Amino acid sequence: MASLKELRARIGSVKSTKKITSAMKMVAAAKLRRAQLHAEAARPYAAAMRRMLGELAGSMAGQDGLPQLLAGTGNDRVHLLIPITSDRGLAGGFNSNINRTTRLTIRRLQSEGKVVKLLPVGRKGYDYLSREYADLIVDHVIGVGGKEIPFSAASDLGAKVTALLEAGQFDVCTVIYNQFKNVMSQVPTPLQLIPLGLEEAEAKPDPNAAQYEFEPDEQVLLERLLPRNLQVQIYAALLESAAGEQGARMTAMDNATRNAGKAIDRLTQTYNRTRQANITNDLIEIISGAQAV
Fold this sequence. Notes:
Elements: H1 4-58, H2 68-71, E1 78-83, H3 94-111, E2 115-118, H4 123-132, H5 151-166, E3 172-182, E4 185-194, H6 199-202, H7 218-292
Helix pairs in contact: 1-7, 3-4, 5-7
């Protein structure tokens, strides 16, 4: 049984931990609101851009000479995966869910005879993947997360992806990120960036949807808009991931604070019982000594 001194030290240590986790919870809650607003504001813009480009690409279906950002290389052999994680931990299963999804995707693609390459974003994903799949990593990005995510981060990442595509390093590019649902739920979501999915163009047209007339012609517009669309989709994924990170950290720190409180109660109870037992033993010794005299 631990001594009273050891129990006091343990209670003090847990109380200090509780103060830290409580403070981290409040900081995450303060950051979450802004990150959530940014992620929700980016969703309709990113969706509208994909829908518009899908309609534009649909009008050019079957033509030769389509940009690679739209049609890819025409092959499906080499896949580039971009998993987005955070640079910091203490966020529950936020990073491990992305790492698990990435690992399962790698195994599935390799079982189908595909070649997989990785471009991890975030320190936690890079550290994990560099241990298991170091030979698949072609580049990595660290330090994107923070109080604010500048659009330049998505532009730089888009430039890296475009350079790899032009160099013939991959055929299909997919980003894997945590889509923010609410504070308790972040869903690992794969989104194919290259070639651009044409589901919107192939689906049954919505009579209430906006109809676009293009000026100048489709080819010129695609050449100008496709690089921008790649940046926008990456930026939206980064914002979703940032909001999910703060939500996951807030939940994790709340659980840690509650568990610390329960641990303090158990240790305090043990301390009081031990103290009472020591007092009882001392009284028994005193009484026994007095009776012996």
